[in-house]
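Researcher: Next entry in the queue.
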Amino acid sequence: MRMRFAAVFQLLVLSLIIAAAGASTVRMTEPYNATIMGNSTVYLGKVGPGQTFYVTISANTTNSTGAVFQRGWNELLATDLPRGWIAENSSLYNAYLSVKVTPPADAENGTYYFNLTAVNAGNYSKLGAAHFIAEINVTPNVFKLQVSPSTISTGPGEPTTIYITINNTGVSDNPFLISAQGLPAWNLTKEVIALHHTSEVFQYPLYQDEPGVYQAVINVTSTASPLVTKRSTVNLTVQASVLNDYAAVGEGAVGFPIIYEPIYAIMQLISRLFHSS
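Model: Structure for this entry, 277 residues:
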Protein backbone atom coordinates (compact mmCIF):
# COMPACT_ATOMS: atom_id res chain seq x y z
CA MET A 1 0.00 0.00 0.00
CA ARG A 2 2.87 2.40 0.90
CA MET A 3 4.53 1.74 -2.48
CA ARG A 4 1.27 2.55 -4.27
CA PHE A 5 0.98 5.91 -2.52
CA ALA A 6 4.62 6.64 -3.37
CA ALA A 7 3.93 5.95 -7.05
CA VAL A 8 0.92 8.29 -7.01
CA PHE A 9 3.04 11.01 -5.39
CA GLN A 10 5.70 10.66 -8.10
CA LEU A 11 3.07 10.99 -10.82
CA LEU A 12 1.63 14.11 -9.21
CA VAL A 13 5.08 15.65 -8.94
CA LEU A 14 5.69 14.90 -12.62
CA SER A 15 2.44 16.61 -13.58
CA LEU A 16 3.46 19.73 -11.66
CA ILE A 17 6.86 19.83 -13.37
CA ILE A 18 5.33 19.75 -16.85
CA ALA A 19 2.40 22.03 -16.00
CA ALA A 20 4.22 25.13 -17.13
CA ALA A 21 4.74 23.80 -20.64
CA GLY A 22 1.28 24.82 -21.84
CA ALA A 23 -0.97 22.00 -22.97
CA SER A 24 -3.01 21.25 -26.05
CA THR A 25 -6.21 19.28 -25.84
CA VAL A 26 -6.44 15.53 -26.38
CA ARG A 27 -9.71 14.03 -27.60
CA MET A 28 -10.16 10.61 -26.07
CA THR A 29 -12.54 8.23 -27.89
CA GLU A 30 -12.07 5.07 -25.81
CA PRO A 31 -13.06 3.88 -23.28
CA TYR A 32 -15.44 6.84 -23.70
CA ASN A 33 -15.56 10.21 -25.43
CA ALA A 34 -13.97 13.12 -23.58
CA THR A 35 -11.78 16.14 -24.23
CA ILE A 36 -8.77 16.16 -21.93
CA MET A 37 -6.44 19.03 -21.12
CA GLY A 38 -2.78 18.21 -20.81
CA ASN A 39 -1.40 17.90 -17.28
CA SER A 40 -4.72 16.68 -15.94
CA THR A 41 -6.01 13.43 -14.45
CA VAL A 42 -8.63 11.38 -16.31
CA TYR A 43 -10.68 8.64 -14.65
CA LEU A 44 -11.06 5.78 -17.13
CA GLY A 45 -13.53 3.61 -15.20
CA LYS A 46 -13.23 0.10 -13.77
CA VAL A 47 -11.61 -3.06 -15.06
CA GLY A 48 -11.47 -6.62 -13.81
CA PRO A 49 -8.21 -8.36 -12.87
CA GLY A 50 -6.48 -9.58 -16.01
CA GLN A 51 -8.87 -7.80 -18.36
CA THR A 52 -7.33 -5.93 -21.28
CA PHE A 53 -8.58 -2.43 -22.07
CA TYR A 54 -7.69 0.32 -24.53
CA VAL A 55 -7.16 4.04 -24.25
CA THR A 56 -7.67 5.65 -27.66
CA ILE A 57 -7.23 9.26 -28.74
CA SER A 58 -7.81 11.08 -31.99
CA ALA A 59 -4.74 12.32 -33.86
CA ASN A 60 -6.54 15.63 -34.44
CA THR A 61 -5.93 18.39 -31.92
CA THR A 62 -6.19 22.13 -31.33
CA ASN A 63 -3.35 24.20 -29.87
CA SER A 64 -3.63 27.07 -27.40
CA THR A 65 -4.24 29.59 -30.22
CA GLY A 66 -7.14 27.59 -31.67
CA ALA A 67 -5.25 26.25 -34.67
CA VAL A 68 -6.45 22.78 -35.74
CA PHE A 69 -3.94 20.06 -36.65
CA GLN A 70 -5.33 17.06 -38.53
CA ARG A 71 -2.48 14.79 -37.38
CA GLY A 72 -1.17 16.78 -34.44
CA TRP A 73 -0.60 13.68 -32.33
CA ASN A 74 1.43 10.89 -33.88
CA GLU A 75 1.87 8.41 -31.00
CA LEU A 76 0.36 7.59 -27.62
CA LEU A 77 2.63 6.21 -24.89
CA ALA A 78 1.90 4.56 -21.53
CA THR A 79 4.60 4.77 -18.85
CA ASP A 80 5.07 4.34 -15.10
CA LEU A 81 2.60 1.47 -14.91
CA PRO A 82 1.97 -0.35 -11.62
CA ARG A 83 4.09 -3.41 -10.94
CA GLY A 84 3.04 -6.39 -13.07
CA TRP A 85 0.96 -4.39 -15.53
CA ILE A 86 1.62 -4.71 -19.28
CA ALA A 87 1.17 -1.96 -21.86
CA GLU A 88 1.55 -1.85 -25.64
CA ASN A 89 2.02 1.63 -27.06
CA SER A 90 0.17 2.83 -30.13
CA SER A 91 1.32 2.59 -33.72
CA LEU A 92 2.68 5.73 -35.40
CA TYR A 93 0.77 8.17 -37.60
CA ASN A 94 -2.70 6.61 -37.42
CA ALA A 95 -5.90 8.64 -37.36
CA TYR A 96 -6.64 7.08 -33.94
CA LEU A 97 -3.92 6.11 -31.49
CA SER A 98 -4.57 3.26 -29.04
CA VAL A 99 -2.64 2.07 -26.02
CA LYS A 100 -3.37 -1.51 -24.90
CA VAL A 101 -3.18 -2.06 -21.13
CA THR A 102 -3.54 -5.28 -19.10
CA PRO A 103 -3.40 -5.59 -15.30
CA PRO A 104 -2.31 -8.92 -13.75
CA ALA A 105 -4.95 -11.66 -13.45
CA ASP A 106 -4.45 -11.57 -9.67
CA ALA A 107 -4.35 -7.77 -9.32
CA GLU A 108 -5.66 -6.60 -5.95
CA ASN A 109 -8.76 -4.43 -5.78
CA GLY A 110 -8.01 -0.73 -5.67
CA THR A 111 -7.30 2.43 -7.61
CA TYR A 112 -4.22 2.57 -9.81
CA TYR A 113 -2.47 5.29 -11.80
CA PHE A 114 -0.15 5.48 -14.80
CA ASN A 115 1.10 8.13 -17.23
CA LEU A 116 -0.15 8.70 -20.76
CA THR A 117 1.67 10.94 -23.22
CA ALA A 118 0.46 12.12 -26.62
CA VAL A 119 3.51 12.83 -28.78
CA ASN A 120 3.95 15.17 -31.73
CA ALA A 121 6.83 13.44 -33.54
CA GLY A 122 9.80 15.75 -33.89
CA ASN A 123 7.56 18.56 -32.59
CA TYR A 124 6.67 19.18 -36.24
CA SER A 125 3.41 20.95 -35.36
CA LYS A 126 5.02 22.81 -32.44
CA LEU A 127 2.64 21.12 -30.00
CA GLY A 128 5.25 19.55 -27.79
CA ALA A 129 3.79 16.61 -25.84
CA ALA A 130 0.57 16.35 -23.86
CA HIS A 131 0.95 14.50 -20.56
CA PHE A 132 -1.88 13.32 -18.38
CA ILE A 133 -2.46 10.80 -15.62
CA ALA A 134 -4.81 7.86 -16.13
CA GLU A 135 -6.77 6.61 -13.13
CA ILE A 136 -8.38 3.15 -13.21
CA ASN A 137 -10.23 1.12 -10.60
CA VAL A 138 -9.54 -2.64 -10.45
CA THR A 139 -12.50 -4.68 -9.19
CA PRO A 140 -14.14 -8.01 -10.11
CA ASN A 141 -17.52 -6.28 -10.05
CA VAL A 142 -17.46 -5.11 -13.67
CA PHE A 143 -20.73 -6.56 -14.95
CA LYS A 144 -24.31 -7.25 -13.93
CA LEU A 145 -26.04 -10.55 -14.67
CA GLN A 146 -29.71 -11.35 -15.27
CA VAL A 147 -31.05 -14.78 -16.28
CA SER A 148 -34.62 -15.46 -17.38
CA PRO A 149 -36.80 -17.33 -16.97
CA SER A 150 -35.80 -18.60 -13.54
CA THR A 151 -38.32 -21.46 -13.61
CA ILE A 152 -38.79 -23.76 -16.61
CA SER A 153 -40.88 -26.84 -17.35
CA THR A 154 -39.84 -29.03 -20.26
CA GLY A 155 -40.09 -32.59 -21.46
CA PRO A 156 -37.41 -35.30 -21.34
CA GLY A 157 -34.93 -34.87 -24.18
CA GLU A 158 -36.47 -31.55 -25.22
CA PRO A 159 -34.11 -28.56 -25.35
CA THR A 160 -35.18 -25.26 -23.84
CA THR A 161 -33.64 -21.81 -24.08
CA ILE A 162 -32.82 -19.30 -21.36
CA TYR A 163 -31.85 -15.67 -21.92
CA ILE A 164 -28.74 -14.28 -20.27
CA THR A 165 -28.27 -10.52 -20.03
CA ILE A 166 -24.73 -9.30 -19.42
CA ASN A 167 -24.49 -5.59 -18.60
CA ASN A 168 -20.79 -4.80 -18.96
CA THR A 169 -20.14 -1.76 -16.76
CA GLY A 170 -16.36 -2.01 -17.10
CA VAL A 171 -13.95 -0.74 -19.78
CA SER A 172 -12.82 -4.11 -21.15
CA ASP A 173 -14.15 -6.07 -24.13
CA ASN A 174 -12.70 -9.40 -22.97
CA PRO A 175 -15.04 -12.34 -23.70
CA PHE A 176 -17.20 -14.12 -21.12
CA LEU A 177 -17.81 -17.87 -20.79
CA ILE A 178 -21.35 -19.11 -20.09
CA SER A 179 -21.69 -22.58 -18.57
CA ALA A 180 -24.14 -24.58 -16.44
CA GLN A 181 -23.77 -26.93 -13.47
CA GLY A 182 -26.32 -29.27 -11.91
CA LEU A 183 -27.59 -31.00 -15.04
CA PRO A 184 -26.19 -34.55 -15.45
CA ALA A 185 -24.39 -35.12 -18.75
CA TRP A 186 -24.86 -31.47 -19.80
CA ASN A 187 -21.57 -29.62 -20.21
CA LEU A 188 -21.85 -26.83 -22.76
CA THR A 189 -19.61 -23.76 -22.57
CA LYS A 190 -20.45 -20.80 -24.77
CA GLU A 191 -18.11 -17.85 -25.36
CA VAL A 192 -19.72 -14.45 -25.86
CA ILE A 193 -18.64 -10.81 -25.97
CA ALA A 194 -20.50 -7.98 -24.27
CA LEU A 195 -18.70 -4.80 -25.25
CA HIS A 196 -17.77 -2.30 -22.54
CA HIS A 197 -20.54 0.03 -21.37
CA THR A 198 -23.18 -2.05 -23.19
CA SER A 199 -25.84 -4.60 -22.28
CA GLU A 200 -26.23 -7.71 -24.44
CA VAL A 201 -28.72 -10.61 -24.36
CA PHE A 202 -27.50 -14.10 -25.21
CA GLN A 203 -29.39 -17.36 -25.72
CA TYR A 204 -28.18 -20.43 -23.88
CA PRO A 205 -29.73 -23.90 -24.26
CA LEU A 206 -30.56 -26.29 -21.41
CA TYR A 207 -31.22 -29.99 -21.92
CA GLN A 208 -32.00 -32.98 -19.74
CA ASP A 209 -33.21 -36.41 -20.86
CA GLU A 210 -34.27 -37.82 -17.48
CA PRO A 211 -37.49 -36.71 -15.70
CA GLY A 212 -36.96 -34.90 -12.42
CA VAL A 213 -36.54 -31.52 -10.75
CA TYR A 214 -33.14 -29.93 -11.29
CA GLN A 215 -31.42 -26.76 -10.15
CA ALA A 216 -29.10 -25.48 -12.85
CA VAL A 217 -26.45 -23.00 -11.77
CA ILE A 218 -25.60 -20.64 -14.63
CA ASN A 219 -22.02 -19.34 -14.44
CA VAL A 220 -20.74 -16.31 -16.35
CA THR A 221 -16.98 -15.80 -16.05
CA SER A 222 -14.50 -13.53 -17.80
CA THR A 223 -11.91 -15.38 -19.87
CA ALA A 224 -9.28 -13.06 -18.36
CA SER A 225 -9.62 -14.13 -14.73
CA PRO A 226 -11.77 -16.54 -12.65
CA LEU A 227 -12.11 -13.71 -10.12
CA VAL A 228 -14.51 -11.93 -12.52
CA THR A 229 -17.56 -14.18 -12.25
CA LYS A 230 -21.26 -14.22 -11.35
CA ARG A 231 -23.87 -16.96 -11.12
CA SER A 232 -27.63 -17.38 -11.16
CA THR A 233 -29.96 -20.33 -10.51
CA VAL A 234 -32.60 -21.77 -12.86
CA ASN A 235 -35.14 -24.33 -11.61
CA LEU A 236 -35.77 -26.92 -14.32
CA THR A 237 -38.65 -29.40 -14.10
CA VAL A 238 -38.42 -32.22 -16.64
CA GLN A 239 -41.65 -34.13 -17.18
CA ALA A 240 -43.61 -35.53 -20.11
CA SER A 241 -46.68 -33.52 -21.15
CA VAL A 242 -48.50 -32.44 -24.31
CA LEU A 243 -47.63 -28.78 -23.68
CA ASN A 244 -43.96 -29.58 -23.29
CA ASP A 245 -44.05 -31.51 -26.57
CA TYR A 246 -45.66 -28.51 -28.22
CA ALA A 247 -42.91 -26.24 -26.83
CA ALA A 248 -40.24 -28.61 -28.12
CA VAL A 249 -41.54 -28.08 -31.66
CA GLY A 250 -40.29 -24.49 -31.53
CA GLU A 251 -36.85 -25.67 -30.42
CA GLY A 252 -36.59 -28.15 -33.26
CA ALA A 253 -36.75 -31.21 -31.02
CA VAL A 254 -39.71 -32.91 -32.69
CA GLY A 255 -39.41 -33.67 -36.39
CA PHE A 256 -42.29 -33.96 -38.90
CA PRO A 257 -42.63 -33.38 -42.65
CA ILE A 258 -42.20 -29.75 -43.68
CA ILE A 259 -45.82 -29.45 -44.85
CA TYR A 260 -46.85 -29.39 -41.18
CA GLU A 261 -44.89 -26.20 -40.40
CA PRO A 262 -48.06 -24.04 -40.01
CA ILE A 263 -49.34 -26.56 -37.47
CA TYR A 264 -46.01 -26.47 -35.61
CA ALA A 265 -46.32 -22.71 -35.22
CA ILE A 266 -49.80 -23.04 -33.72
CA MET A 267 -48.61 -25.77 -31.36
CA GLN A 268 -45.74 -23.64 -30.10
CA LEU A 269 -48.03 -20.63 -29.68
CA ILE A 270 -50.38 -22.73 -27.54
CA SER A 271 -47.50 -23.85 -25.33
CA ARG A 272 -46.28 -20.28 -24.83
CA LEU A 273 -49.75 -19.06 -23.92
CA PHE A 274 -50.18 -21.77 -21.31
CA HIS A 275 -46.66 -21.42 -19.88
CA SER A 276 -47.04 -17.65 -19.52
CA SER A 277 -50.44 -17.88 -17.79
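Model: Confidence is low (pLDDT under 50) at residues 11-22, 253-258.
Researcher: Noted, moving on.
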